[in-house]
Amino acid sequence: MAGKTSIEWTDATWNPVRGCSRVSKGCDNCYAERIATRFSGLGLAFQGFAKQVQGMPHWIGKVELLRHKLDQPMRLRGNQRIFVNSMSDLFHERLVDHEIDEVFWQMALSSRHTFQVLTKRPLRMREYVRRLTNRRSDSGRPLHELLRIMWQSPRRNVHLGVSVEDEQTAAARIPLLRKTPATGRWVSYEPALGPVNWERWLPGIDWVVCGGESGPHARPMQPEWARAARDACKEAGVPFFFKQWGDWAPNRAGTLVHKGKKKAGRNLDGRNYNEFPNGDEGNDS
Questions:
Q1: Is-contact 194 167, C-beta < 8 A?
Q2: In the chain, how many domains are there?
Q3: Domain membership of residue 217 as a residue range
Q4: Is the dihedral of CA 184, 24, 248, 254 positive or negative?
Q5: 79 class by beta-carbon count within 10 Å (0-12 exposed, 13-18 middle, 19+ buried)
Q6: 86-111 pLDDT, tens per residue?
Q7: What angle do CA 88, 170, 243 make, to 5 degrees?
């Protein structure tokens, strides 16, 4: 586990699952896929999970639960925000339910931390959590039954979210998130690749993170897309976190130019937006 991370909206990352696969155009320039391919050589962490294909990084579809990493949150000091599976997706179709049980069990045991779960597979998430909270569950799996008892009221330390990149993915994923039992629901609009009708989708959402794409072949985020998300959140009283412009950002004339992530920064119309759920807010300079 990383005690620190460069991801602005979390304190630490926890990756008990390794491997993934693409599901939409938001995955085309996936940073996790690049990192995995970089470390896919003989004897390295992602050997057998990713590879170069015609000079480009590609997942090969292998996904595994890493049980030796399950207890890492218990060993992290203090009360941390922990991003679950920054390098994968907890609800990937190659994981079976009892493996997801083991991850949820650790989150239940580590109640002093807040776990930020993010998926592009909201149907699997909804069905899993529904089964977990169903009082009439008859799975017969002892660990699942213990979890079911603990989750009759969804855990307040686990916030469930979906990643969207445009209106199409928002329409496909956010309604399923709304139907998922949770005490905290959030949306990561990153990479923002098209406009989203936020007035339509914000009811039932507790937090929005917004960001542009960075890295090789980054696609630009239009400033009006970020402003629309910010303004809709303000109107609805939903906390808004502007993570980054990515590699492209507007200059003083308002023209988008390629600056690179560091120079582009994360200032939107003269300020940083560091809002979190429950009234918690970071440095807002």
A1: yes
A2: 1
A3: 76-279
A4: negative
A5: exposed
A6: 999 999 999 999 999 999 999 988 98
A7: 60
Contact 215, 34 (CB under 8 A): yes
The pLDDT-based confidence of 131 (bands split at 50, 70, 90) is confident
Question: Is 55 within a domain?
Answer: no
Query: Which residue type does 47 have?
Result: Q
How far apart CA 92 and CA 96 sit, in angstroms, is 9
Higher per-residue confidence, 109 vs 244: 244
Confidence of residue 147 (pLDDT cuts 50, 70, 90): confident
Tell me the sheet residues that pair with 285.
Answer: none
Structural element, H or E, at residue 125: helix 122-133
Is residue 15 in some structural domain? no
Identify whether 284 is part of a domain: no
Q: Per-residue pLDDT for 156 more than 90?
A: no
3-state secondary structure 185-243: EEEEECCCCCCCCHHHHCCCCCEEEEECCCCCCCCCCCHHHHHHHHHHHHHHCCCEEEE
In a domain, 43, yes or no: no
Q: Which amino acid is at 200?
A: R
Amino acid in position 78: G
Q: Quick check: 120 pLDDT over 50?
A: yes
DSSP state of 39: T
pLDDT band at 280 (very low <50, low <70, confident <90, very high): low
- Is pTM beyond 0.90? Reply is yes
